[in-house]
Amino acid sequence: MNEELLNLLAGVVRNATPLVIASMGETITERAGVVNLSLDGSIILAAMTAFVVTFLTQNLALGILCAMLVGGLVAWVIAVADIELKQDQVAVGFVLTLLCASLAQFWGQDYAREVGLVIPHFAVPFLGSIPIVGDIFFDHDPTVYFSYILVFGTWYWLFRTSPGLAHRAIGERPEAAFARGARVNRMRYVYTVVGGMLVGLAGAAYSLNLKPGWSTPPNMRGDGWIALAIVIFGGWHPLRVLIGAYLFAGLRSISSSIQRSDFGFPVTLLNALPWVLMLATLITVSSGLLERLLNILPRSAQQSLRPFLRSDSPAALGKRFDP
Questions:
Q1: What 3-state DSSP class applies to 139?
Q2: Residue 219 burial (CB count, 10 A)
Q3: Considering the domain boundaries, does residue 245 fall inside one?
Q4: In 10 A of CB 58, how many CB atoms?
Q5: What is the pTM of this model?
Q6: Per residue in 163-181, pLDDT tens?
Q7: DSSP readout, 85-111?
Q8: 315 to each of 60, 126, 131, 181, 212, how far by Cα in Å?
Q9: CA 143, 147, 152: angle at the middle one, nearest 5?
Q10: Which CATH number does the domain housing residue 135 bear?
Q11: Does a structural domain hold residue 166?
């Protein structure tokens, strides 16, 4: 395979990693019925925290941990506002995303353009030596490898374990889950904070690897909204969310390549293509066309594909549960 194409595909995997991690975190949260709309601000604040802590201590692990704690804390505020204070999740999340972004730029202004540590990358033994596949998927930094484990682990948890079934139940029918003994609000706290910590890790992946350093305005601004859109595009299914993140990253890479060339194609239109594809997918599903196409297939294939192609949001998403 052409070396330039290999580098492009490897770049797609690398660039998609923070979006994959943040989208998985939001998928975990929304599957429990909570909407964390603070993703953009959380990613920015976590990215600043990871870089500044690492810069001051020269300790990558401590910087990543602090970023995850920041993401978890912001998510915890949303959970408290919803469960204890009876406030609207969406409104609180929107305010937090603005607040976190402003705090990050204010607290991080003295560290802009500084040079700090970067997460090292290494090829996975044996897997990294596989032709083509090794170059694309197994010659990266640990956050990329963690994203693979995270996607598979989230899918397995949600669809192959009893606790995962309870997880989905509190986002679909919390009353029924409560009647069967599930501690709905306690579980929502846990999954909201876990999802927030993953969002914080995504922020660290930006400032310590993908876009090293800190700048104002931050380089990753807007990616939190993209992660939210990817969750919807992926129908709250981990594997489809992964595809959505790679699709976004791929189109971004193509856009950058065209921008460096003299093709004369309007880059602005190319940047809008992911949103067009997402809308087309949602319209296809909501119009019933996808269902009619599925009915053509054998019954066994229908049963296998329907869960994967499901695009309805969790029934209790954004709805407060009061025992």
A1: strand
A2: 17
A3: yes
A4: 11
A5: 0.91
A6: 999 999 999 999 999 999 8
A7: T---HHHHHHHHHHHHHHHHHHHTGGG
A8: 40, 44, 45, 19, 39
A9: 155
A10: 1.10.3470
A11: yes
